[in-house]
Amino acid sequence: MSQLLRVQNFMVSSDGFGAGEGQSLERPFGHADPGEMFSWAGATASWPMRTDSGGSRGLDDYFTRDFSRNIGAEIMGRNKFGPQRGPWQDHEWLGWWGDEPPFHTPVFVLTHHPRPSFTLSDTTFHFVDADPATALDRAREAAGGKDVRLGGGATTVREFLDADLVDTLHVAVAPVKLGSGARLWESPDELLDRFHRDVVPSPSGGVIHHLYWRK
Amino acid sequence: MSQLLRVQNFMVSSDGFGAGEGQSLERPFGHADPGEMFSWAGATASWPMRTDSGGSRGLDDYFTRDFSRNIGAEIMGRNKFGPQRGPWQDHEWLGWWGDEPPFHTPVFVLTHHPRPSFTLSDTTFHFVDADPATALDRAREAAGGKDVRLGGGATTVREFLDADLVDTLHVAVAPVKLGSGARLWESPDELLDRFHRDVVPSPSGGVIHHLYWRK
C-alpha cells in the first residue's frame, strides 16, 4: 500500500448522514447545520480554513493537522464542489473556497458533465467522468507518489467503499440526528468485516471519532 | 507561536519516570523494559524505525505519524544520545540509531563536553554547551522556519519545562511502575497551571496519552 486512499475529517450525523436534504448555494449542507457538525474541527489550531493563530492543540488537532500530510491529490464528488446539478449552465462557479482553496494539489471532481480544468492559487480542478477505480488511477498518477484524499460527499465515499478502494477512513460522528439526506452508512459497524476500527470520543469537541484501516 | 517547541511520543511510567536507573549500552533505559513502554508505538504503521509495510493505522498511528510533520530540528540531552558520561573518551560512538537515524534534520545534543559535529545520512549531530533558551535559539535558526522537537530524556524535558519553553507536549503514560530513575513529573496534573490538557486512552496500546498545549 504505497499510495493510500484516505478519507479524513468526514463528518456524519448520529444517524449516518453526511449532509441534509435540499443542498443549495445558501445551504451547502442542506437542512444540516454545518456549525453543529464542524465545530470540533473549527476549534483546532490546524483547521485548514483558520486565519488567526489561535485554536486548540489537543486530540482534535491531530486530525485536522493530518489533513494535508503526505497528500498529493484529492478526489471529490460534484456535490461537494458546488450546488449545481445537471449540465453546467456556465463556468463561473469555481467552488466554495474562494481564491485560496485549502487543497494545494490537483483535485479531481467526478461529474458526467465535461468542463475545462482551471487553477486557483496552487489548486487545479479537473473534471472527470469515470468510475471510481479509473478516477483513482488518474489521481494516483497526479499525486507524485503521495497518498490521495477522498474528500466526499457521502455518496462519493460510499461508491469508493463499495468498490473496496478505501484504505483508511476517519469519520467524526456528531451528536445530531438529520433524519434524511446523503447517507454514508446505516451503522458504523457495517464496515467491520473489512476494516479494523478505533472508536475515540473527542475530549472537548462533542463528536466521536471512528478510525478505520484495512484488515 | 510560529515555531513551536514540541515534545512528542515521550513515554513515562505510571509513577512518572522516563527511564530507569543504571542506563548502559546494554540497557539504554536502565531497569525499565523499553518493550513494555514502547510497544504501543512499535505496533503502528508510522513508527519511524519500522522496516516493513505492516502496522496499525488507528489512533496511536496519529501520534507516530506526527513525529516528523513540520519538524526542522531536534534537541536532545546527552543521555538520550548515548550511555557515556563525562568527557568523551573517543568519538567512535555515533548514537543508537545506526547509519540511518530517524531524525533527518539537524540534532543538537546538550553536553558540557565539546565534540565536533558529524553527519549520518541526512541527520547532522551538533554538540552544544548551552542553557535551554540558547540551545532553542540555535535549533530554531537551523530549523528553517519549522518547529523544533524536544526529544528527551526526562531530565532535559524537565529543564525546558522549568524554563517555560515548551509549547506542546505529548506524553504516553505506560501501566508500569519503575520506582526510581529519571523523573519527568510527580503527577501529570502538575502542568495544568500553564497548559490545557486532553487525556486519551489508547484503544489498543495499553497507554494513556496526555496531550498538553500552552494556555
Automatic annotation (TrEMBL), chains A, B:
Ranges where the Bacterial bifunctional deaminase-reductase C-terminal domain occurs: 41-186
Classification via InterPro entries: DHFR-like_dom_sf, RibDG_C, Riboflavin_Biosynth_HTPR
Lineage, uppermost ranks: Bacteria, Bacillati, Actinomycetota, Actinomycetes, Kitasatosporales
Entries under SUPFAM superfamilies matching the protein: Dihydrofolate reductase-like
Classification via PANTHER family: BIFUNCTIONAL DEAMINASE-REDUCTASE DOMAIN PROTEIN (PTHR38011:SF12), DIHYDROFOLATE REDUCTASE FAMILY PROTEIN (AFU_ORTHOLOGUE AFUA_8G06820) (PTHR38011)
Pfam families membership: RibD_C (PF01872)
Source organism superkingdom: Bacteria
Name recorded for this polypeptide: Dihydrofolate reductase family protein
